[in-house]
């Protein structure tokens, strides 16, 4: 298993990024300004994009694992790597996600705690309804990890 910082042609991983954020225009808003990491284990398994928001605040904008490899620890390993990679530069790492218990539990198991909520985020910022496990996402829940 290895994790690589991707500097060029980030869009070659667009299909996987769309599993984490299903609207391409939203990905385009952060892809070029973010650091992209890909976890390989006999091929790409997980991808993420992290942006610097200033003053030691970084945001995990997208993390996705290939559907057939979910639940095998790849996402968690990628987050652990990010914590090490940004140590010393990062004061706070944020992640925003849909208000779904299983997703929130994943981030909490990785060390994040709930920070705040942005009401109607998915309604106001996406051009189509976003669903997770058959339920429409409405609010964005932000979690944080302090270093």
Automatic annotation (TrEMBL):
Annotated Gene Ontology MF terms?
acyltransferase activity, transferring groups other than amino-acyl groups
Does Transferase count among this protein's keywords?
Answer: yes
| Keyword set, alphabetical order | Acyltransferase, Transferase
Q: What is its EC number?
A: 2.3.1.-
Name the InterPro entries for this protein.
Acyl_CoA_acyltransferase, GNAT_dom, YpeA/RimI_acetyltransf
**Mind telling me which Gene3D superfamilies this protein's record contains?**
3.40.630.30
Q: What name goes with this protein? A: Putative N-acetyltransferase YvbK
The species this protein belongs to is Methanoculleus chikugoensis
Gene expressing this chain: yvbK
């Amino acid at each position: 298993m290895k994790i690589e910082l991707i500097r060029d042609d980030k869009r070659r991983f667009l299909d996987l990024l769309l599993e984490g954020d299903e609207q391409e225009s939203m990905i385009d808003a952060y892809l070029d300004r973010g650091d992209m990491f890909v976890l390989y284990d006999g091929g790409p398994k997980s991808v993420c994009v992290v942006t610097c928001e200033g003053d030691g605040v970084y945001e995990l904008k997208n993390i996705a694992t290939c559907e057939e490899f979910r639940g095998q620890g790849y996402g968690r390993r990628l987050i652990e790597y990010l914590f090490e990679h940004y140590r010393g530069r990062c004061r706070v790492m944020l992640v925003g996600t849909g208000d779904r218990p299983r997703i929130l539990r994943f981030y909490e198991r990785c060390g994040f705690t709930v920070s705040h909520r942005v009401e109607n985020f998915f309604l106001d910022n996406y051009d189509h309804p976003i669903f997770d496990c058959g339920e429409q996402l409405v609010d964005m829940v932000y979690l944080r990890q302090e270093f």
